[in-house]
Design goal:
globular; alpha/beta
Length: 313
């Protein structure tokens, strides 16, 4: 576990937030050697943090034992150079169990996934996240998406809860996010963190920056870290020409391709890692592999993105 508080480490990110895929061997078991290499390469490429065993890392497909092993491997691979945040989810009891496993494995924080299956009211969601935060020493980032969409008033209560340090938005309602940021600020909470957690967040990050949200997840960083880092730098420095060039030439076409298959937000990213030379295996069911022609399009898109970088040099 790194020594500095998680919120302080993330408040001014030096690079993209890295959500590594989980590597599997030919027998379908977790491949820790490939996983450590994947994480280590991401850190060396400039990631500001590693979010292990989260959505891109197929949290849903891992047993508790595999989860703990992978989080521990991510901590080892980072060598305390950047913080490691682990996923935690399902119902409250299981989320607490995963939180404690992550704590034992040396993680620096938790990304609290939406509760499993149920669509709960605001009172129940607030209780769920508060009980999770109270059960661990790790700081918690709440992931808003799908069946866990929070009102500004609920987020104010979360921001006032000891141990909850941020909100990751995977819902994409900018009006709601603006009202949420304003409500928390008006409540006097100044150090609460906000993350753009939409799939392929770079596409929407210019809009989120207008709300003051500078942190975002980058699954693209898994397989083309050079493109993700260039986009991050351009966003941070106000280089709008580079942002537009990458959005128009790479990120928008990638999203178009991603939307051609269910689950491609994970399986297409994992295929990209394999295309770049690291065998991390296939996704586990119920996800499925991209179609052959989509893999060809992905390979062409990777080449196009790298050419765009050369044009900007």
């Amino acid at each position: 576990m790194t020594s500095a508080p998680l919120a302080a480490r993330l408040s001014i990110p030096s690079g993209p937030l890295f959500f590594p895929v989980t590597a599997y061997g030919p027998d379908g078991a977790v491949d820790l050697d490939a996983y450590r290499l994947h994480v280590r390469r991401g850190v060396e490429a400039g990631a500001a943090a590693v979010f292990a065993c989260c959505g891109t890392g197929e949290f849903h497909a891992l047993t508790p034992e595999e989860f703990e092993t992978c989080v521990r491997a991510a901590v080892e691979a980072t060598g305390a150079r950047v913080p490691v945040v682990a996923g935690a989810g399902y119902g409250t009891a299981l989320a607490v169990r995963y939180a404690r496993l992550a704590e034992d494995a040396g993680a620096d924080g938790l990304l609290a996934m939406p509760p499993y299956l149920v669509k709960a009211g605001q009172e129940g969601l607030l209780r769920h996240y508060r009980e999770l935060a109270a059960a661990t020493l790790l700081p918690v980032i709440v992931y808003q998406r799908d069946n866990a969409v929070l009102t500004p008033a609920t987020v104010v209560e979360l921001a006032r809860t000891e141990g909850i340090v941020g909100l990751k938005d995977g819902y994409g309602d900018l009006d709601l996010m603006q009202r949420t940021v304003s409500a928390v600020r008006s409540a006097g909470v100044e150090d609460f963190l906000y993350f753009n957690g939409l799939p392929t967040a770079e596409l929407t990050q210019p809009a989120y920056r207008g709300l003051g949200v500078t942190l975002y997840s980058s699954a693209v960083f898994c397989f083309v870290p050079e493109i993700a880092l260039a986009c991050h730098t351009a966003l941070r420095t106000g280089d709008e020409a580079t942002v537009r060039r990458l959005v128009d030439g790479f990120y928008r076409p990638f999203v178009d391709l991603r939307d051609k298959g269910q689950g491609y937000a994970v399986s297409l990213v994992k295929a990209g890692v394999r295309l770049r030379g690291l065998d991390v295996g296939e996704v586990r069911p119920p996800l499925h592999e991209p179609a052959g022609d989509h893999l060809k399009q992905l390979a062409q898109l990777i080449e196009r993105g790298q050419a765009l970088l050369e044009e900007g040099m």
